[in-house]
Amino acid sequence: MATIAAIIASTHHPFYYRASTAVGADRPPFADEWVAKIHAFRETLTRARPDVLVMVGSDHFHQLWLDNMPQFLIGKAPLYDANWYNEEREFGLPRMMLRGDEELSGYLLRQGIDAGFDLAFSNELRIDHSITCPIITLRPAADLPIVPIYTNIFAPPMPQPKRFVELGRTIRELVESWPSDKRVAVIGTGHLSLELGGPRQFGPHGPDPEFDRRAVEWIASGDLESALAQVSLENLWEPGNATHGFMDFMLMMGVAGPNVKADYTDTLDLFHTMEAYFTWYPNGVDAP
Amino acid sequence: MSKYLVNKFLYSIDRDPDLVERYREDPRGTVTWWEAEQANVILNCPGLERSTWLAFSDTEREVLATHDYVGLFELGAHCFLSLTLFIALFERDYAEPLAFQREYAARLSHWTVPYPDIAT
Fold first, then answer.
1. Would the CB atoms of A61 and B79 count as touching at under 8 Å?
2. Which of A63, A79, A192, B99 is most buried, by CB atoms within 10 Å?
3. Could you tell me which residues are beta bridge partners of residue B110?
């Protein structure tokens, strides 16, 4: 059976690529610290020696639209073009191409549907920065095949938070039952408190540092019980109007399991939002 | 009230570089053209299979025709769509990084949660 090489949960900040590659007067003052933290975080994936990456993210109204909106969708294609014109325009993100692992996509779809998730699928998916940002930060060579999984954290009505946790738990069980000798890393990105298009956007910190503090503690300690007790679809609007992206962190907590402490935790308090990086090694890892 | 159609307009303009420029230069003309020619195109269907019923309310049409992002927020347009498109339209006019985004926030500062409902 396949081995879970690592479980990684991260924020996805589309400004990282530009900040990290800028030079001279264009380089922001926080870039060096940010790059150092990303390099340390990247090492947590490199050490795990993955063969395949299951990538959990969310389409930001690129290919998925309100006339036909899936709640949970798995890509099943040999190749994925990546990044969109408006991401080039706003963030300077490069066009990318990633290989797909169709066998694992097919396995997760079949078994996931049979396990009670009526998953949508796509055989031609152009992925966006929710998946390419962690490729850029964690595996910039973009040399491993991926299975993209999209969740709806964007367009109400959305699934309940507990459903994200259950999907994470199911992904874990399915990867571990996949008849393969491959080492699979499951990587998911979301947000802590975040405001976009509202009065609290682009402040000196994230819109709700107290929520961020609690959220980091929940994730780092695997405290699913507190997260599920204190987070609802209704109250996630309060820390910031784009904070439903936290449900993808909850999905990754479901992958990691209840009360499983992260083996690696780091944060960076940036303008606009708090960055947060977590890695679990359910099967241990070689010494660095 | 056709919140979905307002979102469809923002989405359709934002993903097309030529339409972004056209909407910046001629907002009222672009809204008029788009409502007449594009509003009823189902995005994944050939033109023959258009919808027949989508139209803006007078308020929605005026908000879009005047680049009124505060009005869009108050109508419950999707905040991410509005922000992304308006950054494309106007960030270039500001010298400091994020100055447009901060002005945008300031112009909405009379709002506290709960914000207008964005559900469609």
1. no
2. A192
3. none
**B89 to chain A, closest Cα gap in Å:** 11
Cβ–Cβ below 8 Å for A89 and B88: yes
Tell whether the model's pLDDT for residue A288 goes beyond 80: no
Select the residue from A27, A67, A152 to test the B interface by mutation, using most B Cβ atoms within 10 A. A67
Looking at the DSSP bridge assignments, the partners of residue A188 are A9, A56
What domain count does chain B have? 1
Report the predicted TM-score, pTM, of the whole model to 2 decimal places: 0.97
Look at residues A124, A34, A30, A117 and name the one whose alpha carbon lies nearest to residue A80. Answer: A124
Beta-strand relationship, A183-190 and A52-57: parallel
Closest Cα in chain A, distance from residue B45 (Å): 11
Chain B residues whose CB is inside 8 A of the A62 CB are 15
Q: Is the pLDDT of residue A17 over 90?
A: yes
Instruction: Kindly report the average pLDDT of chain A as a whole number.
Output: 97
Contact B14 A86 (CB under 8 A): yes
Show residues of chain A in contact with B3, CB under 8 Å: none
Task: Answer whether residue B120 is part of any domain.
Answer: no
Phi-psi region of A165 (alpha: psi -120 to 50; beta: other; left: phi over 0): alpha
Could you report the per-residue pLDDT of A177-222, keeping only the tens digit for each?
Answer: 999 999 999 999 999 999 999 999 999 999 999 999 999 999 999 9
With cut-offs at 50, 70 and 90, classify the pLDDT of residue A69.
very high
Query: What is the CB-side half-sphere exposure of residue A213 using CA atoms within 13 A?
Result: 4
Q: Which residue has the higher pLDDT, A286 or A36?
A: A36
For B22-25, which contacts have Cβ atoms below 8 Å and span 24 or more sequence positions? B23/B85, B23/B89, B24/B89, B24/B90
Residues of A in contact with B89 (CB under 8 A): none
Per-residue pLDDT, A272:
87
Look up the domain containing B96 and give its range.
Answer: 3-107
Which residues in B have their CB inside 8 Å of a CB on A?
A: 4, 7-8, 11, 14-15, 17, 42-44, 73, 78-84, 87-88, 98, 101-102, 104-106, 108-115, 118-120
**Chain B residues with beta carbon closer than 8 angstroms to that of A84:** 15
In a domain, B113, yes or no: no
pLDDT at B1: 61
Q: Which residues of chain B have pLDDT under 70?
A: 1
Nearest residue to B83 (alpha-carbon basis) of B92, B73, B94:
B73
> Does the residue B114 lie in any domain?
no
- Is B96 contained in some domain? yes
